[in-house]
Amino acid sequence: MCTGAAAINRRNTNESSPPLYTYFNQDQTLELPYSFPFFPSMAACLGSVSEMHSIRTVLEELDEEKQMVRPETTNSNPNLPTSTSTSTSVMVMRRKVERIFPVYARGKLSPRSDPSVNSGSVVGDSIWDAVRVEAKCEAENEPILSSFLYASILSHDCLERALAFIIANRLQNNTLLETQLMDIFCDVMVQNRGIHRAIRLDLQAFKDRDPSCLSYCSALLYLKGFHSLQTHRVAHALWNQGRKVLALALQSRVSEVFAVDIHPAAKIGEGILLDHGTGLVIGETAVIGDRVSLMQGVTLGGSGKETGDRHPKVGEGVLIGASVIVLGNIKIGDGAMIASGSLVLKDVPQHSMAAGIPAKVIGYVEEQVPSLTMKHDASKDFFEHVAIGCEGRSIGEYEYSI
């Protein structure tokens, strides 16, 4: 693996020591433990090796400084270090580490060890605590993933920074470096309290509603629907700040990498599930309420060449099945359910089930929030229930054509 004039080789030492990565740069070398996570971009981040300690030396010195016992009384012995000198030494060691691995400087080598750093972490963050516990368990069960889990989760001090690192590494290319993307994501996520809340509610939605989602950790690391949604939240914030070109660049990368196309101007609520995500299209003036579940292949699009407000408005608690197409500035009422493969061209009433091409209301849903139960199959029992419910009502109530 080569990056510019630098190259990274892996070699084995004697049996008592772990294998090492060797960094070559103009006849200078830097040896790194193989267990330490190493990404291709790090080679580009390394400066002159003659100006740095080896990572092993730096970490050993940092550990020694932390383990030193501070004197209980005044410093009468000049050989004993003062607390000020100890603190200064620790900061010097930390800066040396950050110069070698600037990508990991965001997450710190010891998470939560420096309370003076304004990380933007949430006090009493139960979801972030659960993610860290799950990551540690997975690292123990699958040691081959330990470096990946450390780099992605355990090296960071809050959920926002971990998410920024994960998404940046998935979206990076030769011209959009992950360090640049991570700076963008961190700047938006850490400072925006609304995004703090939305990230956690979305993560809970994926964990609760997707039966294939094993844990919070797996949703955070692997599910592209979640990654697409959080990238949109950042792009939407940038769009509202007037940074429209950057927002569109993020939309383009998400479309390329995840096959999900969400315009950065679209407004999306909290507690959203994008199940699978593949083929999802959401237009510029679309609005999606809270606790909505969207399956793969859903299109919330416009019709014709009209400008202005031209995309659907989806209420709270709506469940939209796979490959549904909703066109035009129409309203999907709260708690409605759209069956898979339907084409919706007119408004859908609240708590109703619509199906067909073009879609028609075939009944009403007793569940107040069908998006939470994810039951979107029109079974025989459902139609029998609808037939019983029709007794005593006018036919017009159930022959509403969409």
Question: How would you describe the overall organization of this protein?
Answer:
The protein has 402 residues and is of the alpha/beta class. It is 40% helix and 14% strand. It has helices at residues 40-45, 55-67, 83-100, 126-141, 146-154, 159-171, 178-191, 193-209, 216-222, 224-240, 244-258, 370-373, 380-390; strands at 2-3, 6-11, 20-25, 28-33, 261-262, 267-268, 273-274, 281-282, 287-288, 293-294, 299-301, 313-314, 319-320, 325-327, 331-332, 337-338, 343-344, 352-355, 360-364. A six-stranded mixed sheet has the order 7-10-13-16-18-19. A five-stranded parallel sheet has the order 5-8-11-14-17. Helix 6 runs antiparallel to helix 7. Mean pLDDT is 75; it is low at 1-59, 69-76, 96-121 and 390-402.
